[in-house]
Specification:
Rossmann fold, alpha/beta, six-stranded mixed sheet, five-stranded parallel sheet, 18% strand
Amino acid sequence: MLHKLSELEPYLNEHRIRCRLVIPAAKDTNVFNAAIAAHESGIVDITLIGDEHSIRRLAEENNYDLSDMRIINQENPAEAAVQSVRMVKDGSAEIIMNGEESYYGATMILRQIDDRRRGIRKGSIMSHMAIFEVERYHKLIAVTDTVLNVAPDLSTKAGIAHNAVFFMRRLGTEIPKVAVLAAIEMVNEAMPATMHAGLLSKMAQRGQIKNCVIDGPLAFDNAISFDSAQQKGIVSEVAGDPDILLAPDIETANILYQSFVFFANARVASVVLGASAPIVFTSKLDTDETRIASILLAAAAYVPISYR
């Protein structure tokens, strides 16, 4: 089990993970900085798809060494996204990262990933998971879904939980604990989030969502604080020790994300799950530390599970 994001690199080296990262529409300096740093770790090889002239000019201006990187000339950003997905399908790439840090850059890649004929969508649900290192919490904790699923229904939440559990197991947590968040810790038919939480708990008990313990509804305080749960008389395997916080909707997840970063100074890395390769989407608000950690986090998808 990992307790800090800084443990990712030695963890991946311990498992001898080496992946190829493909970056379509490669143009943002921030992305280049992170990709080169990740490459220097020895964990990822890099393929850049984009306007080769612009890529080499950017490298010259910033003193980048691209000698060990493959460059595919493609001036059309949409076609670059198509090629990146094709590389995953034919096994010549294992991670995709947006080369343009913008809403357009992310949606262009998602459109190709989700294409029914040519795409690489694997499960029924694609979801975004952010993993935080919060000083006052005793281990890494994930929040999902902060980006993709706006108002998930029960089936979608089950898919989001499945994706998060799959990934946390590759980070060394054999049986991840999932806290399904709501405003209160009691099932109330007037509050659909509490109904979903109760049903997800029962689904996990019956083996419909495997390899995890799910409890909910849990309010945020009794999800992360054992003392708070005790004071409210809540008996739970999850309370005070969750690995994953499953939010009721995108607004809640996004507010948690921003609160952890801006109020708690949390370190963060994130990845999109549910395709046949992990996807790294970064934004201009991310730090270089977050970008690099997100690439390494994506590489953890290839750590083999050795649990019984």
